[in-house]
Amino acid sequence: MGKEVAGPEIDRLIQLLARLPGLGPRSARRAALHLIRKRNELLAPLADALQKARETIVTCHICGNADSQDPCTLCRDVERDPHTLIVVETVADLWALERAGVLSARYHVLGGTLSPLDGIGPKDINLTRLIERVASGAVQEVILAVSATVDGQATAHYITGQLAEFNIKITRLALGVPVGGELDYLDDGTLAAAIQSRTLF
Amino acid sequence: MGKEVAGPEIDRLIQLLARLPGLGPRSARRAALHLIRKRNELLAPLADALQKARETIVTCHICGNADSQDPCTLCRDVERDPHTLIVVETVADLWALERAGVLSARYHVLGGTLSPLDGIGPKDINLTRLIERVASGAVQEVILAVSATVDGQATAHYITGQLAEFNIKITRLALGVPVGGELDYLDDGTLAAAIQSRTLF
Predict the structure, then answer these.
(1) Which of A16, A20, A54 lies at the smallest CB-CB distance from B39?
(2) What sign has the CA pseudo-torsion B9, B20, B41, B32?
(3) Residue B163 and residue B130: Cα distance in Å, rounded?
(4) What average pLDDT score do residues A38-43 get?
(5) In sequence order, which residues have a C-beta less than 8 Å from that of residue B35 and are 6 or more positions away?
(6) Do residues B141 and B83 make contact, with C-beta atoms less than 8 angstroms apart?
(7) Cα distance between residue A71 and residue A158, in whole Å
């Protein structure tokens, strides 16, 4: 909408906003109007921030993280344990683990999972660099923090095979009941895994 | 989050995106990552579109619409009936009526409703210009297309009083059952209005 009503500039803005995850055509219109109303407080700073992001953000050639410097902030951080490497699917997963703040380790972002049905093979994800990093010798443990989905687990299996020749520990995330989760709402697979991996109280 | 993880540029982008209506902190992070991943297809065009919107979009001095030209596209459109003026609260309401496409009339955007409790009086909304437009003589009917809320109806009453001296017809939107609405889910006020204003079948 908006073609004859609001001019091509607003129309284009709405179209682009609607392509953000979480925004549909209706909320994109609301967002556009909000931006127009808050021109100085929001529209201008957002335009600048996007321009800056476009100019500065690069993919770290070591771990695949998104940052404004390469190597990224995490790879430059000498305080982080260089012996533990957490393998994640996406930058979003890396951020989630950092928010949880459990381990001050190194990361490796695959950028996806193997998915033969979608034509995504080992060459399409950031695997070669992972093997190089392990081969270089510092890594003692690789934690496969991939999704507990079919594709995620297949990817974990494949990586385990590729890293078999190196003398390192390969671990994966525990399966079980999520904190705060009610048993009644959990699927059979999660419950079975939680029973099988039960721990002493 | 993201301060030590992803650098200040990404952090700033997430903060600004989270201020858009419909996006919370979590979806703002997802949107930011989506933008970074789709740098050429989405980030760059959106940065440009915002920059262009910032430079070009103005408020029409006649009707209060947002457009890239002043007078706006609707005010310039000579095909529109100059005798009928639809008064709306916001540009979003104007767009909604244009999407419905019922009437090819002129608009007047108030930019809000009177709200004594919030300290919004007649001088804070676009009323003076409305009275000027009516006084100039072309308008024969003013349709008060304001919300069926307390503030909306109070605003409609106030405007009716201000326009009493002019020899014009003042109408308001019909109250009743929304198309597709199920009676069971409607409030008492709507049902009462729909019964009172019942029409011959």
Answers:
(1) A54
(2) positive
(3) 9
(4) 93
(5) A20, A50, A53, B13, B42, B43, B46
(6) yes
(7) 27
Is the ipTM here above 0.85?
no
Sign, Cα dihedral of B47, B2, A36, B23: positive
HEC secondary structure over A11-79: HHHHHHHCCCCCCCHHHHHHHHHHHHHCHHHHHHHHHHHHHHHHHHCEECCCCCCEECCCCCHHHHCCC
Q: Which amino acid is at A49?
A: A
The residue among A9, A63, A91 with the most chain B CBs within 10 A of its CB, best to mutate, is A9
Q: How would you classify the pairing of strands A105-109 and A81-88?
A: parallel
The SS3 assignment for B14 reads helix
Cβ of B21 within 8 Å of Cβ of A5? The answer is no
Q: Count CB atoms within 10 A of the CB of residue A100.
A: 8
Encode pLDDT of A128-183 as tens digits: 999 999 999 899 999 999 998 899 999 999 999 999 999 999 999 888 888 888 88
Question: Are A54 and B66 in contact (CB < 8 Å)?
Answer: no
pLDDT at site B5: 64
Nearest CB to A7; choose among B45, B47, B73: B73
State residue A156's pLDDT score: 94
Stretches in chain B below the pLDDT threshold 50: 1-3
CA distance to partner chain A, nearest, from residue B67 (Å): 5
Distance CA A56, CA B106 (A): 46
Question: What integer pLDDT is reported at residue B180 of this predicted model?
Answer: 85
Percent of chain A with pLDDT over 70: 97
- Strand pairing partners for B66? B59
Q: Which of A113, A57, A45, A11 is nearest to B32 (CA)?
A: A57
Tokens of B80: 């529109």
Find the closest chain B residue to A9 by CA distance.
Answer: B53
DSSP class of residue B41 equals I
Question: Which residue in A111, A163, A108 sits closest to A135, CA to CA?
Answer: A163
Cis before B71 (ω within 30): yes
Q: Identify the band that residue A5 occupies on the pLDDT scale cut at 50, 70 and 90.
A: low
